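Annex B. Sample input.
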Amino acid sequence: MNIKGNLKYLVAGATLFLLVYLFLAAVPIGPDFYFEPSWILTLPDESLPHDEQTEPQIFPENAEPFVLGDTFGFFSPNGTVLYTQKTEDRIAISKHGWATYPYDAHKTTLHFTDTTPEYTLCEPGYVHLDDGHIYLFHPGGNRVSRHLPNGDRLWIREHTAPITAFNCSAAGTVIGYADGNLTAIAPDGSELFTFWPGGSDQQIILGVSISEDGSHIACISGINQQRFIVASRMSNQYRILYHTYLKGNLRRQAYINFEKSGRYAFFETHNGLGIFDSKTKESRIIPLSGRVLSTGDYPGDSLFVVLTQNGEDYTLSAIEQPDHLVATANFSGKNAFLVQRSNVVYLGINDHITRINIRGIE
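Annex B, continued. Sample output.
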């Protein structure tokens, strides 16, 4: 697949803001992809409090959450700012709600985007929100609990070593620890499996992910002989489906994520972005510099986007699945985020957010 395109820049106030129209001229061997900017919005300088909202507590189901530096909030797909707030505290946010809390939080108030009443979780720790899931990471770093929107605790999990990696989906929760243990937990809190991948000089789990249906779990484990491992559910058990040793070593938390269909897993390596195809049971590395922040989740054989960071330098890359890098764009900023919803991309830089439509996807 070949893609035509160009890169253009817009100046919004004193800020140099990148708007991406990607592509490279070419021989047509199939439908062309191109990026079409839809709108750009500028975030207000001050917080937009609840009483200035048309709906003070209820946002549309398709409202998108965002965090850009010390500013967070929600916007609509048509480019309307629904809510923003500035804070010096930590931020937890998802499509279903948000919370802010200090680094030494002893309790945290959770706010929701629907009619669910806000409530205060009267326990110390760090709140983590992921879609409709509510977690609390307890002091000490080796305990995590899951809670219902009314505050009731579903389950709590404690281990002897600190938590170093974490991920969840509708099918369950996966936790990696500093001693190299990997544990998967069902939504009701029962243990799906636990094991130590091993195979490295230093045993530690740096990244984990579970597919939406729970059929696959992937992890980055170890230092010196670092490995990427995929386990597959067979009947009521998980078994190793694939593993490979990686070149070099990441010595920090590693990005790893299944796209929504569960076929592809994207994982960060020392020298680029890895892509694992659960259908072919193969993985490839695409050379990309910087830390991986986000990957697109459009399912099937089409296009996804990737955002990487190196200091205040960011790179937006477009990749045709499974592993064809078709275009990149570089820009600078203090903060950035990327979200891909099927053929719609939202890109935030500093105090601006833009919507970009991907055309040509069939």
